[in-house]
Amino acid sequence: MNIRFVEAHKTKDYKKINELYLKAFPVEERVPFWLLKWKSKTVNTHFYSIYDDETWVGFIYFIVFNDFLFILFFAIDENYRSKGYGSEIINKIKDMYVGCNIVLNTEVVDENAPNNADRIRRRRFYDKLGFTETGYRITVRNKIVFDYLLCGESFEPDDFIALVKRYVGPVLWFLLGMEKHYKNSIKRRDDE
Question: Fewest CB within a 10 Å sphere: which of 12, 86, 115, 138?
């Protein structure tokens, strides 16, 4: 395996990335694709098309701020899943950002969810890569609950909020009322 990251805007893969994005993430978890493209050109935001040599295998989208790296979206093309690409890519990110606390969200395991088997599979995948539960959850759009997983030393909600604020910018942060949303949405699991 020879994994390469190429900035998505320097490839002709936006159509493939968008198709995978639409398949891999339910509508309620997505943001407009044009927004991902636009924000990827800002400082500390990384949107990569991923290759094994010349073969396109997927994409990853993450933000880095101070010693904090947040993976927003990560997907492998269905033709290349369960072949070790996901692990190889996450390990490459760890090597590239040594010392960073890497955080991501996964849907809460819920035996009543129609996709619970997928949720369990994803959780096991990240467990195997050294991610652990932070003890914090976020509710998105008043219905989707995610656990924050961490590969690193610490997760502080205020650091996460600072990262999101920097990503969206002060105008959108204010207009969308995001501070109130995040302060009210990030909860310790024990407090629910």
Answer: 12
